[in-house]
Amino acid sequence: MQLIACPWCGPREEVEFRYGGQAHVAYPDDPAALSDEQWAHYVFFRDNTKGRFAERWNHSLGCRRWFHALRDTTTYRFERVYRLDDPRPVIP
Question: What is the pLDDT of residue 88?
């Protein structure tokens, strides 16, 4: 069982968390102006990075708060977790 460090609750078992997709995806400035194709691209298309990747996670069985995590997708290792209001880390 892997431990994930919630920024508010501390380390907890991974079964308490839910994956929320790619982090730092900007909402369109004017969603009503998007074509169906552009809107579908925003909703469904995400990066599929091998290696370090910024993700959103929810501590669904704990404090129920959302946070970001920097995780290596090849090893599943969490390198860093940070709150939504923390600055975005530089991913080399």
Answer: 85
- Tens digit of each residue's pLDDT (9 = 90 or more) over 8-38: 999 999 999 999 999 999 999 999 999 999 9
DSSP code per residue over 8-20: TTEEEEGGG-EEE
pTM confidence score: 0.86
In terms of Cα–Cα distance, which of 56, 62, 61 is closest to 83? 56
Contact assessment for residue 39 and residue 31, using Cβ atoms and an 8 Å cutoff? yes
CA dist 40 → 12, 25, 34, 37, 87 (Å): 35, 14, 9, 5, 28
The stretches of the chain forming alpha helices (DSSP H) are 36-44
